[in-house]
From TrEMBL:
<comment type="similarity">
    <text>Belongs to the type-B carboxylesterase/lipase family.</text>
</comment>
<feature type="domain" description="Carboxylesterase type B">
    <location>
        <begin position="31"/>
        <end position="503"/>
    </location>
</feature>
<dbReference type="InterPro" id="IPR019826">
    <property type="entry name" value="Carboxylesterase_B_AS"/>
</dbReference>
<feature type="signal peptide">
    <location>
        <begin position="1"/>
        <end position="24"/>
    </location>
</feature>
<keyword id="KW-0732">Signal</keyword>
<dbReference type="Pfam" id="PF00135">
    <property type="entry name" value="COesterase"/>
</dbReference>
<keyword id="KW-0378">Hydrolase</keyword>
<dbReference type="InterPro" id="IPR029058">
    <property type="entry name" value="AB_hydrolase_fold"/>
</dbReference>
<dbReference type="GO" id="GO:0052689">
    <property type="term" value="F:carboxylic ester hydrolase activity"/>
</dbReference>
<dbReference type="InterPro" id="IPR002018">
    <property type="entry name" value="CarbesteraseB"/>
</dbReference>
<protein>
    <recommendedName>
        <fullName>Carboxylic ester hydrolase</fullName>
        <ecNumber>3.1.1.-</ecNumber>
    </recommendedName>
</protein>
<dbReference type="InterPro" id="IPR050654">
    <property type="entry name" value="AChE-related_enzymes"/>
</dbReference>
Length: 541
């Protein structure tokens, strides 16, 4: 079990420990879960208990590599839950991004919990975080995601590791024959982690009937994928959702990878490694498997790497289609995006050294509607050309689909929806880029490696963080981000200024960008972007 250790106790004392911990009682650093007892870190100066590296699944190693996650075997004794477990294998090159916060290993399916509850009967709302990273990198142990500060606001914070890249999303016909066809093992990890919360969170003073999932980038896409999954819907694994910069894993190359595309990509991977069977693949070291599929932010991971696909099991249809037809979970939603999402995705922009080059690439997507496209993304002078190419990739990767998710969710479910537009900038975080909001949401004003923070936060940053975190926590508690002390966040769908601008000034905002989103959305067929957009790959994009 990684570096975790068991502190053995007398079997004769086990019934007494079980009764003491499982009944409503003062909550301390020893907690009894469905699989056994754990001990975590004592309360810190702010009164928060933390439990780290809790196994929520059997390690997916050996013959269990590329299989659905299995619940862990119960243990007798007290599990050391004071340190983060291993991160799942990540592989990313460039951009100064740290792939993992702890060493990589296949034995990585662990859970972390922060709670300020003083009694196990409190039933505090739960906030379940899904990290981003293009489904290629990321770790629950990242300092940005530490749940201490947020837990101090009266919620239970949970995060976890899930399998990434080739370990999480390899589709092969031979694997399909082993059980239920899928390939989306990383998404199945998320489902099992949510089941773990449902079964165990009450022991930490949490409410299993009030779980809010929230995530950023790939984590936000995962939120939309899970909302569209019949499995999550049938089991009612969560009750509210927050999407930060993402929704359905759509992109400039079109919609989610199809079942057949995933199988073809898997078959190509076998040929690349010169193997003919899954048994041979499982015999190759994790390091070598990982090295065979490197990822760079200058490439679209939906095209060049393994990521979620329409597997027919977790995701039976394209999520955009599910939302357009009201098949997604009918729960309150908070969703939004940042004004400079494109900062991270510059390497994925359409070629635009010249206006002619830009038009030729865009024509692959928009065909005979180029005059309309150019009216929205002008190219007639150099400054416009650069701005348009950036705005387009930010819209295609993030903004349009996040808007579309909020719009269709409000339209097809009549559930409360709250939308935001993030514009905040300061000396600490000078660019409202993709990822920029995360330190403020968690109240952890650490260095953001994407932007490269070099100036420490000042009192304005601290105040802004408290305000933003307050909105997120209020939503988790009430399905509404507002409180008596906050600037009023309008409900989305009322028209006019129905977004909240999260900027230096917190205020209702009337979107100026809807024409671009409606244009892109007009290419969707019942919610699905054209498969013909895959043709961008023919020009190396």
């Amino acid at each position: 079990m990684n570096a975790r250790t068991l502190s053995w106790i007398s079997l004769a004392l086990w019934p007494a420990l079980h009764n003491a911990v499982s009944s409503a009682s003062p909550l301390g650093s020893t907690v009894l879960l469905a699989d056994g007892a754990i001990f975590g870190n004592d309360r810190d100066s702010s009164g928060i208990l933390s439990f780290k590296g809790i196994p929520y699944a059997t390690p997916p190693v050996g013959a269990l590599r590329w299989t659905p996650p299995q619940p862990p075997a119960p243990w007798i004794g007290t599990l050391n839950a004071t340190q983060f477990g291993f991160s799942c294998w990540s592989n990313i090159a460039g951009f100064g991004v740290v792939a993992s916060a702890t060493p990589d290993d296949e034995d990585c399916l662990t859970m972390n919990v922060w709670t300020g509850a003083t009694d196990s009967s409190e039933r505090r709302p739960v906030m379940f975080w899904i990290y981003g990273g293009g489904f290629q990198f990321g770790s629950a142990g990242d300092p940005t995601y530490n749940g201490t500060t947020m837990a101090g606001e009266g919620v239970i914070v949970v995060n976890f590791n899930y399998r990434l890249g080739v370990f999480g999303f390899l589709g092969l016909d031979e694997l399909d024959q082993e059980g239920i066809p899928s390939g989306d093992y990383g998404l199945q990890d998320m489902l099992l982690a949510l089941r773990w919360v449902k079964s165990n969170i009450a022991a930490f003073g949490g409410d299993p009937d009030s779980v809010t999932i929230f995530g950023e980038s790939a984590g936000a896409h995962a939120v939309g994928l899970l909302m569209s999954s019949p499995i999550a819907k049938k089991e009612q694994l969560f009750h509210k959702a927050i999407m930060e910069s993402g929704a359905w894993w759509d992109r400039s190359h079109g919609p989610l990878t199809t079942y057949d595309e995933a199988r073809q990509y898997g078959a190509n991977f076998k040929k690349k490694l010169n193997v003919t069977s899954v048994a041979e693949l499982r015999a190759i070291s994790a390091q070598d498997i990982n090295n065979a599929q490197p990822f760079s932010l200058n490439h679209d991971p939906g095209v060049t790497n393994f990521s979620p696909s329409v597997d027919g099991y977790v995701i039976p249809i394209v999520p955009g289609r599910a939302f357009h037809n009201g098949l997604q979970m009918k729960i309150p939603l908070l969703a939004g995006f940042n004004s400079n999402e494109q900062y991270v995705f510059q390497g994925n922009e359409l070629p635009h050294n010249t206006s002619k080059e830009f038009k030729s690439a865009a024509e692959i997507l928009f065909g005979d509607r180029m005059p309309e496209f150019l009216s929205l993304y002008p190219d007639n002078i150099s400054a416009f050309l650069n701005a348009s190419s950036g705005a387009l990739i930010g819209d295609l990767y993030i903004r349009e689909q996040t808007w579309e998710a909020a719009y269709t969710h409000r339209k097809t479910t009549n559930m409360p929806v709250f939308a935001y537009y993030y514009t905040y900038a300061s000396m600490y975080e000078p660019i409202p880029s993709h990822t920029a909001e995360m330190p403020f949401v968690f109240g952890n004003l650490v260095n953001n490696p994407v932007i490269g923070s070099v100036v420490p936060p000042d009192p304005q940053d601290v105040t802004f963080s408290k305000e933003v975190m307050g909105y997120w926590v209020n939503f988790a508690k009430n399905g509404n981000p507002n409180s008596a002390s906050s600037a009023t966040w309008p409900k989305y769908g009322t028209g006019g200024a129905d977004y909240m601008e999260l900027g230096v000034v917190l205020q209702p905002y009337q979107p100026q960008f809807l024409a671009q989103y409606h244009f892109i959305a007009s290419f969707r067929d019942d919610g699905v972007l054209p498969l013909s957009w895959r043709n961008l790959s023919s020009i190396g994009v």
